[in-house]
Give the backbone structure.
Amino acid sequence: MNLAITPLHPLFAAEIGGIDAGRTLDAPAVGALTEAINRYAVLVLRDQRLNDDQQIAFASNFGRPEINIGVYRSADQRRLERPEMADVSNVNARDEVHRREDQRRMFNLGNMLWHTDSSFRYPPGALSMLYAHAVPSSGGETEFADLRAAHDALDAATRALIADLRAEHSIMHSRATLGFTEFSETERAALPPVVHRVVRRHPGSGRATLYLASHASHIIGWPVPEGRLLLRDLIEFATRREFVFVHRWRAGDLVIWDNRCTLHRGRPFPAEERRDLRRVTTSDTAAALEQAA
């Protein structure tokens, strides 16, 4: 199957035409989309019409959807029925926009840090598929960084330094950098730290890639301050403007990205305006520590 592909950035990201994500895909369509994901890492499908079941069914073509672990969303607060669906929105179960001081809103502000989905889990996230039901009048963009291109651009000494390093990832760490530390013991037990390589071999393209995130706390075997400085420097380098694509949302957009070779972050938007985005993430089937570059 030949897709209508329009590149959106010199290095990565493309808009895909001719796909209705709400319909059952045949094998050639799944294969063509997989090839496009491996090449471009971020795909934009405009003007889709999806309910939650259709979005989950579409994601299931590319792997097993992970089960969302609700942090600060108890059973009576959960807005969406399907556990495969992550609620990346600012509305509650009564369909009201969160108050500015709402604890769930404070937690979700962490999405504005550069991260890769579910690096704090094992297995970590592979592909994420985020669908826009409603978007604010301004702001709320999502920025993506190409970690394969960033790795290629590192100097030889840095590539040699980081080639065999491992980092510990924890959602508690990323939220703590914003001053958000009020996790229950149950939540901490459900999301223990995990360890991943700093450099991996991306399975789809065969290219070496950095694997970074705000969830990355420290380098294993290094003094914590030294490791954190290295991680900060790497993220700062990888998110230079030449490596970044900015997606400006419209209702009906479905954006697919590969967490194994990209970083992303949300941007601010008017807190009083409704923003309803819903995400399904597939699990990475390969063991992260075995993905040596």
Q: What stands out?
A: Residues 4-290 form a domain with the Double-stranded beta-helix fold (CATH 3.60.130.10). Confidence is low (pLDDT under 50) at residues 72-76. DSSP finds eight helices and 15 strands in the chain. Residues 207 and 277 are 31 Å apart (CA to CA).
